[in-house]
Design goal:
Elements (H helix, E strand, L loop, with lengths): L1 H37 L3 H11 L2 E3 L15 H14 L2 E21 L2 E20 L6 E12 L4 H17 L3 E3 L16 H27 L6 H11 L9 H13 L49
Parallel strand pairs: 1-5
Antiparallel strand pairs: 2-3, 3-4
Length: about 300
């Protein structure tokens, strides 16, 4: 028994010495690797990160009804961060300029379309990569980002977009679709950006025409020449069809509502002033009042020169 115990004790001591030796060798290797990294300049470190991160997978954003795959900021950060830490790099972003543009859009609520205001932010950002062992050794990249939101998220989205673009370009990251997810449903309709823009523009134009027609129909209860009145109102208020909004047509409807109803003997004809083409409305069509009003009069064809 004593001999066995002595053998086990000797084996444990030998194993302990071996473990210490392995740990010491690992420590020496790590110190050598650290010294090698500290001797590298910023460009050598960036190149090492490029060699480590060869590919970043695109993913389909959650929600929003988006039909395309995008390279998300968090995925880029998750892929790059471990290599940035290993090669002792730090980066920070500085906003150089930004521009906020309000956009009027029409959103569908049930069977109706309602006007809504959203904001588009364009931001230029400089991303600076720094050698933490020698802070004056740094490398900068500038990128542009865009963000659209109807509340307060547009600036943050634009900055995130720009930082992601700067990292992708600085590190020359490759991205693409997942090979296991290349199948596309033939019944799935994916709209291009041009198709989306075309449909949005047409929907906005149709909505404006509907409001324009509503104003004419309401004015017909008060004036003999309702279209001439509406076009005259637009001219007096410096409203063109291109620049008009739902609020402009609602103002017109309120003014029509304040007008006195048409008397039974018929009101005086309202003549709209001639408007130059530069005003964006065009000359109103001249209409003659019929001497005898038929029982069923066809609705006059409305002038669409303004669109």
């Amino acid at each position: 028994m004593a001999a066995n115990e002595q053998c086990e004790k000797t084996a444990r001591e030998e194993n302990g010495e071996l473990d210490k030796k392995v740990e010491l060798e690992k420590k020496v290797e790590l110190e050598k690797e650290l010294d090698r990294i500290k001797a590298m300049n910023i460009h050598q470190r960036m190149h090492a990160v490029m060699d480590g991160v060869k590919y970043v997978q695109k993913e389909k954003p959650a929600g929003g009804g988006l039909q395309y795959k995008a390279l998300m900021h968090d995925r880029v950060t998750a892929a790059v961060r471990p290599w940035m830490v290993k090669y002792r790099l730090h980066y920070f972003a500085t906003v150089l300029s930004y521009k906020v543009e309000p956009l009027v859009v029409w959103k569908k609520f049930g069977d109706e379309r309602k006007e809504s205001t959203t904001f588009r932010v364009e931001m230029v950002v400089r991303v600076c990569f720094v050698n933490i062992d020698k802070p004056e050794d740094r490398f900068s990249v500038e990128a542009v980002g865009f963000g659209v939101d109807d509340r307060d998220k547009a600036p943050g989205a634009a900055e995130t977009y720009a930082v992601k673009n700067a990292m992708v370009k600085a590190l020359d990251l490759e991205s693409g679709d997942d090979p296991d997810q290349t199948y596309t449903d033939p019944d799935e309709t994916v709209m291009s950006a041009q198709q989306v823009a075309t449909e949005t523009t047409q929907a906005l134009k149709d909505a404006k025409l509907a409001l324009y027609d509503t104003c004419i129909d309401r004015a017909a209860l008060v004036y003999d020449n309702p279209e001439a009145y509406v076009r005259s109102w637009m001219h007096d208020n410096k409203v063109t069809f291109e620049s008009s909004t739902g609020d402009d047509f609602r103002r017109c409807l309120r003014e029509i509502a304040r007008s006195k109803p048409k008397p039974s003997e018929g009101p005086k004809s309202v003549e709209a002033p001639e408007v130059s083409a530069s005003a964006g409305i065009g000359k109103p069509a001249q209409q003659e009042l019929p001497t005898d009003t038929p029982k069923e009069e066809e609705k006059p064809k409305r002038n669409r020169e303004l669109v």
